[in-house]
């Protein structure tokens, strides 16, 4: 979560975020699926919530879909966020590995990685700002 990071972060859009959406860290999200995938699906799959974590990879899949992965505390798996909205893709194009992001998305469950669809980035803490303030 964003607590513990003492620096200003940039909101990437003006409001419009669902107030009732919960926030879960990328590490906690992966832990939920590692501990019990069935239980995690029951409580998270098909739900919209914020996920927060550190960018590990920025890329496109074989169908040219734009995504980022967030560190999950495991070596083999990550949280994979997919973006379709042009304005969001523009934001993703400016991200760097190590940036800390908070994004809203629809959880689609575990398929190698935990998949989040239709994501919208709410805020970014650039890697350089985090290094300076830690």
Detailed description of the structure:
It is a single chain. This protein has 134 residues and is α+β, with helices and mostly antiparallel strands. It has one domain: OB fold (Dihydrolipoamide Acetyltransferase, E2P). It has 4 helices and 7 strands; from the N terminus they run E-E-H-H-E-E-E-H-E-E-H. The protein has helices spanning 26-35, 37-44, 86-92, 127-133, and strands at 10-11, 23-25, 48-60, 66-70, 79-83, 100-111, 113-125. The protein has a 5-stranded mixed barrel, surrounded by 4 helices. The longest helix is centred in the first third of the chain and has 10 residues, at 26-35. 28% of the residues are buried. Residues 1-13 have low confidence and may be disordered.
Short description:
It is built from four helices and seven strands.
């Amino acid at each position: 979560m964003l607590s513990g990071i003492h620096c200003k972060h940039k909101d990437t859009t003006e409001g419009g975020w669902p107030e009732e959406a919960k926030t879960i860290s990328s590490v906690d999200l992966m832990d939920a699926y590692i501990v019990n995938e069935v239980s995690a699906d029951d409580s998270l799959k098909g739900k919209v919530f914020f996920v927060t974590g550190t960018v590990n990879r920025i890329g496109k899949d074989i169908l040219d879909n734009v995504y980022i992965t967030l560190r999950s505390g495991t070596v083999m798996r990550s949280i994979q966020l997919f973006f379709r909205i042009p304005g969001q893709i523009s934001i993703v194009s400016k991200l760097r590995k190590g940036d800390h992001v908070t994004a809203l998305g629809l959880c689609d469950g575990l398929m190698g990685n935990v998949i989040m669809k239709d994501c919208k980035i709410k805020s970014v803490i650039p890697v350089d700002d985090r290094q300076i303030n830690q």
